[in-house]
Design goal:
It comes from Sphingomonas palmae. It is built from two helices and no strands. The protein is mostly helical. The protein has a domain of 34 residues.
Length: 72
């Protein structure tokens, strides 16, 4: 299973992250250190892809469901 071949379409970040997590878990179960490293690498690449796809804003991601607490 090689990722060197180009895909017909780019995989989304959550799909790549899930693939990396599965690959890491399988590597741990089999004792395959290379598979663990490949899985972690895939997860890091997915995080970078997700950051690149996210809109660039200076605003912090805050939970808007919580009402503001009153200040005394």
């Amino acid at each position: 299973m090689s990722d060197d071949t180009p895909d017909k379409r780019e995989k989304s970040a959550p799909v790549r992250e899930a693939k990396g997590a599965a690959q890491e878990a399988i590597g741990k179960l089999l004792g395959d250190d290379q598979a663990v490293r490949d899985g972690r690498s895939e997860q890091r690449d997915a995080a970078k892809q997700q950051d690149a796809e996210a809109p660039k804003t200076d605003a912090r991601d805050t939970d808007t469901n919580n009402p503001k607490q009153e200040q005394e």
